Amino acid sequence: MAGLSFCALGDPGLRLPWQVRRPAMPAGKLSKKTETLEIRLPPETKAAFMARCQASRRTASEALRGFIEQDLVTPKPAPRRRSLAWHALAAAVAGLAVGAVAAPSLARTATTDATFQRLDVNHDGVLSVEEFRAR
């Protein structure tokens, strides 16, 4: 299994004579890097990551530390929970939309029925072309 283990001290083979320090913790004494982090990656992902680190002239540990530090300081939006009121409002809007579409077809008035009865001379419930032309 292809694994990748990064030590918090970095990869000495890629270390530069100078080191870029990023503020990881609040102002004060920086804590010692004693913890390790192990992640498992496919070999091609590891190779691509290491090549990018080498091209940017930093160690893999520096890149990962920078990512972790940035992730910790970036505020994350709180997940929004949909409340019961939101669902009720959505249902009400949907109901109004259905009602608005259905209302014209349900709006049969007595005058419409009376007009049809007047045109349907033989009272068979069907308006023929002759009955329509005779109006």
Automatic annotation (TrEMBL):
Q: Which InterPro entries match?
A: EF_Hand_1_Ca_BS, EF_hand_dom
Alphabetically ordered keywords of this record: Membrane, Transmembrane, Transmembrane helix
Q: Name one GO molecular function term.
A: calcium ion binding
Highest taxon of the lineage: Bacteria
Signal peptide as annotated in the record: none
Locate the EF-hand domain: which residues?
Answer: 107-135
Pfam families, per database record: EF-hand_5 (PF13202)
| Entries under PROSITE patterns matching the protein | EF_HAND_1, EF_HAND_2
- Annotated TM spans: 84-103
Q: Could you tell me what this protein is called?
A: EF-hand domain-containing protein
Q: Which organism is it from?
A: Caulobacter vibrioides (Caulobacter crescentus)
